[in-house]
Specification:
The chain contains 14 helices and eleven strands. It is of the alpha/beta class. One of its GO terms (molecular function) is [acyl-carrier-protein] S-malonyltransferase activity. It catalyses: holo-[ACP] + malonyl-CoA = malonyl-[ACP] + CoA.
């Protein structure tokens, strides 16, 4: 907890794909015009690669779904918005650890100082194209009811389809009260047909997503390991929690090991975002979870993990909404701060 007259402690959480949409258009320059020198450097790097710049994308007259959600463009916007958010708040909190969901791991590496912030844009862009070229698809399905209470029949339905399509369907991301599955196009289509319909929304096949965090990404992993050497990695300035819940602690880490994790396990195995947040809360006992933008894609999942742990009085969706909206703890900010909306 926070000592008197000290900065509040925080774990920074970086979002993955899907955070930058029509409502976020223009948000990078609205919120971070003072950081234009860094944006200009990113723009120069992407222009040299022949890709749309962050400025062109963020300052477009309208949101073009196909253009803005193109893998390399979406990744650039998500990384840029997240890192700029981090820069803007890093002096306001005692940041005790950094984590992320899925491609948010790349943003986390830059926030923690493992990757140079400017050069990280090259790796983020490359990995987005690299993984998007892979086969397969992805869907999301709830494991909790409308008040975030665990619902065993939903988990059983997931277990059943995984068993039915073994070797072609995989757990992709454990995401609070949700599970994301990856697999071949045929396996995802079959699972979407077989899973019971919930709230007339789920199962939801995610548009433009390949079979992320599964063995179908092995070729992408091989290409990344061949292209990006350990020279891109530096010792972190802040502890990192990865998609296994493993904590990369200071003062020194094995740079070869974190490179191998980043481009092998992180690409081809289940990303356990739930476990990452559980470790963050248990091991670092932060005053706040700071969810970087763009958007608020992490809000529900973070709240669900908090409710699993009864963290700061959050036990279900109702208590989460009440605590987030009121100052019941005597602090000016709620326990979970979403920079994409605050």
């Amino acid at each position: 907890m926070t000592a008197i007259n000290s900065k509040p402690t925080a774990v920074v959480v970086c979002p993955g794909r899907g955070g930058y949409n029509k409502p976020e258009l223009g948000s990078i320059f609205r919120h971070h015009e003072k950081q234009k020198p860094l944006i200009d450097k990113w723009d120069a790097r992407r222009d040299a690669l022949g890709t749309a710049t962050v400025s062109q994308l963020d300052q477009a007259d309208k949101f073009d779904f196909n253009w803005h959600r193109q893998a390399d463009n979406a990744a650039a916007l998500i990384y840029a918005a997240g890192y700029l958010d981090f820069n803007a708040i890093r002096d306001d909190y005692n940041i005790v650890a950094v984590t992320g969901n899925s491609m948010g791991w790349y943003t986390a590496l830059a926030c923690a100082g493992v990757w140079d912030a400017e050069h990280a844009m090259d790796i983020v862009t490359d990995m987005a194209v690299n993984t998007a070229e892979a086969e397969g698809a992805q869907l999301i399905y709830p494991l909790v009811d409308e008040n975030w209470v665990w619902h065993a029949p939903y988990q059983q339905a997931i277990t059943d389809v995984l068993k039915q399509h073994q070797g072609k369907l995989f757990e992709s991301i454990r995401y609070g009260g949700y599970i994301l599955l990856s697999g071949t196009q045929a396996a995802i289509a079959a699972a979407a047909k077989d899973l019971p319909v919930i709230e007339q929304r789920f199962p939801m096949i995610l548009p433009g997503h390949a079979a992320f965090h599964s063995s179908l990404m092995q070729a992408a992993s091989d290409r990344a390991l061949k292209k990006w050497s350990v020279k891109q990695f530096q010792q972190p300035k802040t502890p990192l929690i990865d998609g296994r819940g493993f904590c990369w602690q200071l003062p020194g880490i094995d740079l070869d090991a974190i490179r191998q994790y980043t481009f092998q396990h992180q690409v081809t195995e289940t990303y356990d975002f739930t476990r990452a947040l559980q470790v963050a809360i248990h091991e670092f006992a932060p005053d706040h979870l700071i969810l970087l933008g763009p958007g608020n894609s992490l809000g529900g999942a973070a709240g669900q993990v908090a409710s699993m742990l009864n963290w700061q009085g959050i036990t279900n969706k109702s208590s989460f909404n009440n605590i987030q909206k009121s100052d019941t703890r005597g602090t000016p900010m709620p326990p979970i701060v979403s920079l994409g909306i605050n």
